[in-house]
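FAQ
Q: What does a multi-component entry look like?
A: The components come first, one per line:
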Amino acid sequence: MELILKNLRAFDPQTGLDGVTDIAVDGGRIAQIGGEMPPADRVIDCTGLTAFPGLFDMHVHWRDPGFTEKEDIFTGAAAAKAGGVTGVLLMPNTKPPVDSAETVKYITERGAQTGINVYTSACITKGMKSEELCDYDELKAAGVFCITDDGRPVENAELMRQALELSVENGMCVSSHCEDLKIINGGIINKGRVSEALGVKGMDRASEDYITAREIALAASCGAHIHICHVSTRGSVNIIRAAKAYGANVTCETAPHYFTYTEDKLMSRDADYRMSPPLRTEDDRQAIEEALLDGTIDAVITDHAPHTAEQKADFLKAPNGVVGLETSLAATLTHFYHGGKCGLDRIVRLMAVNPRKILGLPPVKIAVGESAELCIFDPNERWTVVPEKLHSKSKNTVFKGETFTGRVKYTVCGGKIVFEDM
Amino acid sequence: MKVLKGFLRFILVVVAIVLIFAIVIICTYVLGSPNTDTGTESRNIVSGPWTEVVGDDPKAELYSFDFNQSGEFKIAKGDKQIADGWFKIDEKSRKIKLLMLPSHYTEEFAPYVNYKVLSEVSFSNLKFQIKEAEFGKDPEIIKDKEPTVSFLIREAGDKEGSGETLVMNCKMYEYTLDLYSSEHDLTRNA
Ligand SMILES: [Zn+2]
Ligand SMILES: [Zn+2]
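Then the predicted structure of the entire assembly, as tokens:
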């Protein structure tokens, strides 16, 4: 055996597994769970630690190619591994944008060298310009299974409808960054009390709710599936909940900052709290929390969006986005599990099971014969987020100085330990 | 009474005519303003500073043209700016349509302006090259081979070319253009 993990609480609702046991890993697969363990090259005592199937983050920006001063595929992967993430779906707003097989090839070739599963989405429209659809046959042949113009909506609704219509045939997942740019109109934070207090232009919540409703209507009109990115408002939650109740084929995601913080953080005039969509009101925060607990929101993602300290220096001019891969599990465990709001079961589904299901990827399970992909964490370790210690090239985290309970100790992917907390 | 009625009718007609003029002028400006979302590619072809090249006379006041990526232009003679405003390119007919406010051109340029606001420039010989960008780096349009272009501006109201036509053979000295300037930065919102 290559590796034995001893006294580990293995937790996988997909197989009904929950108990302290030993796991033997060999040849990249889980060779044995429990029973008499054979000798191994390495034995790790995992007393007090819990193992989930490796997490999957379906909304990540690694900036490579083109913006590697912010992040590249290898530093991005290092951040993912430190967060217990063994699979990611990258967003296509790189330079050049991912609208050709050539760019897909560049990313997947590098991704294959990281030790975790790196997939990239591609653009819905060429150059993300909302003018012309990409060649989906070419992209599909290159291995693409999800398309999005994340960072902006497809402004032309008819083009979006056509992409959705084609997705019924080509089986691609279409996901949407729901923000109407005309309503946003140069706003930089949520429109309301705080934007007024600071005297800065606000982003009206209607910008998100309106496109969310549009996408659901467009998808329904052609029987397609639509995935709504980073939900942040009560309005969007209500629309999605109602649509699901009526049988619409819609899934959605949110990020830890939306259930942890509100626009009050912006009173500091610190651009590290600026992202798109922005931190909203307490009422919105509560709506996100409720929607995660009642199953309206299907996945927790990070929208890991690195920007350099220089780019984030000016509150008014800084680009939107925050990093999150290394704090996602900790933030979710702290808020929901330790906050007594839900058990580990829901968290595994939100962070490991559902994202793969939405994208049509094979499930990752803790079972004999399955690929060994594990997120091993200490659910009770308290730690404070120090931006300088993050593996990501950029340090723009909203969670700076926050103390969390729950810390990733080992990440296993393809049977190898790809991260070890030292 | 009749006189008053007639006078009122006259006033109404005048008001109607004034209104129609106002609408036409407003429409000209609204429809003529460059669309910043589309047409950037054709703007990239002409954008940059073009300087006239003629003979050996060092004292000659040369024309220069400057078209930018957001659809604004300037025309100068020597050091003096003689016109500025918005432009639109019709690549097929190789024409650039100029739209100016009457206060934005001088007497010197006035003969080439139609209906007080419109002028048209034809172009030919326009060549440029797109530098193959290193993968993932900024792709650029590079006009470093000193491309030449001929700009023709015809006197307004003259259909058959009997009036004066300005012919300017211009060169663009080394100039590069970043297609991914901050306004095109796709990471601004994600
Ligand atoms: Zn987005
Ligand atoms: Zn994003």
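Q: Is there any commentary attached?
A: Sometimes. For this entry: DSSP finds twelve helices and 18 strands in chain A.
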